[in-house]
User: Which sequence fits this backbone?
């Protein structure tokens, strides 16, 4: 099994790390880049549209904390009332309209 383009992963990681990952929307933008092969501007626009915010809002950690809580897609600090792990990933998958391998594996294990 191939590992994909190692340089592509490094570039994607470097670009989204600058967006603070889970503190803002870097993880969501990275998912779109990796799952759909979107360029960063296209991925940012797509994520912003799906979340109902503007592209500049993706970089605002205070606003994104509220957006992440509202959409239940995980936050950097785990709160008892907020989804974590697989539940947050299910919400991300639904909002962004993407298929996540970790969810598929979980479903297969549940089905036996």
Assistant:
């Amino acid at each position: 099994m191939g590992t994909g383009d190692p340089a592509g992963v490094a570039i994607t990681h470097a670009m989204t790390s600058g967006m603070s990952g889970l503190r803002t929307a870097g993880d969501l933008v990275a998912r779109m880049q990796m799952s759909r092969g979107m360029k960063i501007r296209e991925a940012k626009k797509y994520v912003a549209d799906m979340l109902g915010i503007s592209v500049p809002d993706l970089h605002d950690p205070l606003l994104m904390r509220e957006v992440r809580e509202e959409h239940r897609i995980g936050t950097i600090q785990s709160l008892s009332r907020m989804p974590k792990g697989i539940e947050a990933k299910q919400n991300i998958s639904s909002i962004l309209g993407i298929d996540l391998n970790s969810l598929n594996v979980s479903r297969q294990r549940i089905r036996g």
